[in-house]
Amino acid sequence: LSATATRPPRPTRAAYRRFQPIATRWNDNDVFAHVNNVVYYSWFDTAVTRFLLDTGLVDLRSTAIIGLVVETQCRYHAPVSFPDEVAVGLRVDRIGTSSVRYGIGIFRADDPLAAADGHFIHVYVDRATQRSPQPLPAAFRDALAPLLTAQA
Amino acid sequence: LSATATRPPRPTRAAYRRFQPIATRWNDNDVFAHVNNVVYYSWFDTAVTRFLLDTGLVDLRSTAIIGLVVETQCRYHAPVSFPDEVAVGLRVDRIGTSSVRYGIGIFRADDPLAAADGHFIHVYVDRATQRSPQPLPAAFRDALAPLLTAQA
Amino acid sequence: LSATATRPPRPTRAAYRRFQPIATRWNDNDVFAHVNNVVYYSWFDTAVTRFLLDTGLVDLRSTAIIGLVVETQCRYHAPVSFPDEVAVGLRVDRIGTSSVRYGIGIFRADDPLAAADGHFIHVYVDRATQRSPQPLPAAFRDALAPLLTAQA
Amino acid sequence: LSATATRPPRPTRAAYRRFQPIATRWNDNDVFAHVNNVVYYSWFDTAVTRFLLDTGLVDLRSTAIIGLVVETQCRYHAPVSFPDEVAVGLRVDRIGTSSVRYGIGIFRADDPLAAADGHFIHVYVDRATQRSPQPLPAAFRDALAPLLTAQA
After folding, report:
1. φ/ψ of residue C102, rounded to 5
2. Counting Cβ atoms within 10 Å, is residue D81 exposed (0-12), middle (13-18) or buried (19+)?
3. What are the residues whose beta carbons fall under 8 Å from the beta carbon of D9, sequence distance 6 or more?
4. Do A36 and C27 touch (CB under 8 A)?
């Protein structure tokens, strides 16, 4: 389905640093018996949030800064269908003053090539106002560092 | 939330050619009481499909070619929350041999600036095999033409 | 599809007191090109919450008591498919000390008979602890009264 | 949250015959930081469909009869929140001429008592017309039998 000459190749698992297993659900499938394009983003979201919770730096009830999603993108390469199991590959592409760009790849079963890949950008803001960007704390940067790659 | 110097400005309604009203649902909201980033893509999907059905060119049960989604992207500018009503602005950015790129803007209530904007790319393939790209029929191109803009 | 002799008949619109219009979304449809059974409950939820917000008694950010959903049920009578528009009929079946049981009917387009019907039970609890049931305030009972029917 | 004297007790795992693990997703959570009531039904649906696919009796693309969902119900006993893992307990309550009623329990992490429980009723119909109920084939009954309990 590579429609354009400029479309980048399908990433491999080596392009990611952490993998989150996700089981498809029956109602992820659409009329064409494939997982609907929208659902992939719920997997992106889940993989990023699981990483943040697992680091222990973010607690959903008490955290003073929250990550607002400012941009997401996904390229779809090959179908995924319920009851497939997928692994969501996660890496960090860039750590800015207040922002983090994650690179994400969706891998179906044992396929070495990504069924889809994309990115997800968080900007950290004050939780109460949800407005002014806040600098990422040092502990946060330290937790992100192991996922950083030279890809972007 | 414009995190980077290169982030394009929020589009206005004038950038779109057709508007699909969508009502938010209670479970569109996430923990932060805003519509979750994933949900916007279900609105993209709905606006494109409604347009295709309304043209009469696509019938979900009988169409010989189907549009596979190969890429989507969304930039989030301002929050939307249930029970907001939104209008999904739609335009056509590019008509390729087998592909169509739609530009999409999400407008909340009476806000003249988009709360989010992005794109959605379909590649048309044979329905049975869901593989080889198929040229867009002339009638299809004719239906898309009124939505075409010079934006991309 | 009335599988059992005891299955109650499809309700009419006269059985409900308030109607919430809802537009289907493309990804509401499942593999069989009908709205998936799960989605109906998001319409139940949306109709109840819209009613509560519209009364002005509930504010999602400040309310001291919250309604926990303790039981829901739906019977499916006839298919609904994107791009159908539906009306969600709402009534109040019973007002208890701390609980409210709503009766709900899903009506497709101009169909006089419900495509689905069911119920939805809220128990009100203290927001902070989300545990001990709280008596419904008088203003709350007054707002519910016009929707009360003799059906249950 | 047992609001009424007649509310049945929370089932234990012993009441079910098969368990399907399901991982919560970030956008399963609602404004109150608990999995939204609607989402539980997607787990019901997924557990039943996984069982049917795993038996080998149902193939989503070729099956001549399909199970239409005619009734579902859920009682909610205790909250579940992302990133909880849940196990969906499944049993068969009744096998009719053309219908199957499943009993379902949602168990959070290591909790011996169900966080929610309910039922799910399929009526089998001809796939092409999706109307007239069809008798369950003998092989189908044989596959259901090991899940049958004396509960209903």
Report:
1. -100, 140
2. middle
3. none
4. yes
Mutate to test the interface with D, among A28, A41, A46 (most CBs of D within 10 A): A46
> Could you tell me which chains touch chain D, where touching means 3 or more CB pairs under 8 A?
A, B, C
Q: Which of C43, D53, D19, D15 is nearest to C35 (CA)?
A: C43
Q: Looking at residue A112, what DSSP letter applies?
A: S
Is some CB atom of chain D closer than 8 A to the CB atom of A152?
A: no
Give C148 or B130, the one with higher predicted confidence.
C148
**D125 CB near a chain C CB, below 8 Å?**
yes
Match 């009766």 to its residue by tokens: C103
Show Cβ contacts of residue D99 under 8 Å, excluding neighbours closer than 6 positions.
Answer: C3, C4, D70, D121, D122, D123, D124, D133
Which residues of A are less than 8 Å from D53 in CB distance?
A: 83
Distance from C-alpha of D130 to C-alpha of C32, rounded to nearest angstrom: 9
pLDDT at B89: 98
CB contact under 8 A, A79 and B130: yes
What is the pLDDT, as a whole number, of residue C150?
74
Closest by CA position to C152, among listed C113, C117, C112, C116: C117
Residue from the list A43, A50, A61 with its beta carbon closest to the beta carbon of D83: A50
Residue entry with tokens 């199970």 = D67
∠ CA B39-B40-B46, rounded to 5°: 95
* Over residues A68-97, mean pLDDT: 97
Q: What is the pTM of this model?
A: 0.93
What are the φ/ψ torsions at residue C104 (nearest 5 degrees)?
-135, 140
Most distant pair of Cα atoms in chain B: their distance: 47
Query: Looking at beta carbons, which residues of chain D come within 8 Å of A22?
Result: 23, 25
Alpha carbon distances (Å) from C54 to A122, C16, C44, C47, D65: 33, 17, 15, 10, 44
**Minimal Cα distance from A37: which residue of B?**
B69
pLDDT at B152: 46
- DSSP state letter for B108: E
Alpha carbon distance B60, A59 (integer Å): 44
Lowest mean pLDDT across A30-44, B119-133, C9-23: B119-133
Percent of chain D at pLDDT exceeding 90: 76
Task: Name the pLDDT band for B3 (thresholds 50, 70, 90).
Answer: very low
Confidence class for position C1, pLDDT limits 50, 70, 90: very low
Distances in whole angstroms, Cα of residue C29 to Cα of each of B19, B126, C9, D44: 22, 21, 25, 17
With beta carbons under 8 A apart, name residues in chain C contacting A34. none
Please state the rounded mean pLDDT for residues C116-137.
92
Q: Is the dihedral of CA C30, C31, C34, C40 positive or negative?
A: negative
- Exposed, middle or buried by CB within 10 Å (0-12, 13-18, 19+), for A106? buried
Q: Could you report the per-residue pLDDT of C78-101, keeping only the tens digit for each?
A: 999 999 999 999 999 999 999 999
